[in-house]
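Practice problem: predict the structure.
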Amino acid sequence: MKPHLIKYSLLLIAVFVIGLVNQALALSPPVAMLSQVKGTVEISKGKEWKAVTSNKFIFDGTKVRTGADGSATLINQTTNTSQNLGAGSEIEVTATAIKMVSGTLSEPQKAGDGVLASMSSRFEQAQRYTTVRRSVDKKDKDKKLNTAREITLSDTHPDMVWANMGEEFSYRLIIDNKGIDVPASKEDMVRFKVTGLTPGTHKYRVEVVKDGVSVFSPKGDKTMVWLGGTALEDLNKKLAEIKASTPGDDFLVANLLDEKGMTVAAMDLYRKYFKENPGDIDMFPLLIKTYHDLVLTDLKKEAALEYNKNAGN
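Answer:
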C-alpha cells in the first residue's frame, strides 16, 4: 500500500475509535427523579452508596434505598407517574420498570404535565455538545464575535451575555439600530442588563470596540425577544407549578426557561447548582448546551473536558 494511503487509513481508524469512545461516554437520559427527599436516602450505581439530600435525577441501573427515617417521591419520566418510597425500602430503577427489592412503594399516581420527559429530551439533545474538538488558535485572527442567534429576555431576566474577546476590548450593543456602550470586562463572559424594551421581537448585534473605534461588526442582526404580557404571565404560572410540585429543583426550572429561549437565566441556574454540587456531573450536558447556544466557546470546551473526565464516576 502506498504511504499516503496507509496514512489515510490510520486516520480513518483513529476517527472511528474516537467516535466509539464518545458513544461510550454518552449517557442515556435520566429515567426518573427523586424529589421531596427526607431523612436518610442513598443511591448506588455499583457497590458504593451515596447520600441524597435534595432532588436528584436517576439513571438506568441505579439503586435507591431509604433508612429507617428516610422517604422520597420517585417521578417516572416514561410513565409520567409518581410513587412514594417508604422508610427502610430499596428499589432498582431501569429504563423499563421500577423493581421493588424490599420495603414499601406506593401505587403510581399521575405526576403532572410531563416536564421531566421534556428534561430528558433536552438532555439527549445536549449529548452532542459534549465532544471536545480541537480548536484553532485565534490569537492572530480578526476579533470576530459570535452571539446567540436568538435570545429571550424579560424584566425578571434581563441579562444578555457574550464571549469576552479580551480585556483590551469594549463593546457596542446595538438594539433596533440604537447603540449602547458596554465597558471592557475581565470575566470569561461579558454581561449586560437590557432595559427599556417593549414586548415583542427586536433586532440586535454586538460590535467589538478598541480605543473608541469599532474593530468588528457582524454582517447581520440577531433576534432578541422581550417577553411580556400574556406570554410572561403563562411562563410565570408554569414556573410556579414546577416550584410547587418539586420544591428546590433548579433543573426543571432551568429546563422551562431554556425551552422558552431564556438561555442566560437557565445557564445561571445550572452554574449555581454545579457550584453547590460539584460532584453531580451526570447532568452537566445541560449546562454545556447553554454555553453552546450562547456561543461561549471557551466555557463550553472547559465544561466538556470536565464532563468527559468525570462522567460515570
